[in-house]
């Protein structure tokens, strides 16, 4: 570990010593500033402070080290990057410079519109319709994506329940049933959400759905029996 740490520090020192004094033009800044899609639910924001290039990623601000006219190193990501354009699609990308083959061009992080929002951003803004739309697109491409795991939404929903934000909890649990329609757990959670709002009919309907998918759900069975006995 000490050797690796020493090599990393040595490499960073070499980069700092070899970096060029590059003056970015205003045109270059305007063309490259903006948001780049790191993955299906995460963006990198590129911006400038004077002649310094910064990246904002996962709520952290990172100042880059310029190593060429269109090359810079980001220590926090431990990546050397540059801006490229796909000659066919004309789409712009933030591209990783490969250590093994520096001449190869890869299209890693697509430049998106300045007003682009990830599904999780919409979720935080309580725009559940837009959030669901985005998560469904993720599911179309990868049904096992970590960004649509049912337990993630369940945790959010129950946090809303604990905070007495019952309508928000129901919205999250509903979203989960659409994303995972064959899971008994998501209907059980939606039943809990409706029960917290006082909507016993919808609670019953969802507990029933959960029980149909999993007859070992004793709690759902108890509620169903009590409700039907009324």
UniProtKB/TrEMBL annotation:
InterPro entries given in the database record: TPR-like_helical_dom_sf, TPR_rpt
Per-repeat ranges for TPR: 184-217
Keywords: Signal, TPR repeat
Signal peptide limits: 1-21
Record's keyword annotation contains Signal: yes
Protein name (record): Tetratricopeptide repeat protein
PROSITE patterns in the record: PROKAR_LIPOPROTEIN, TPR
Coiled-coil ranges per UniProt: none
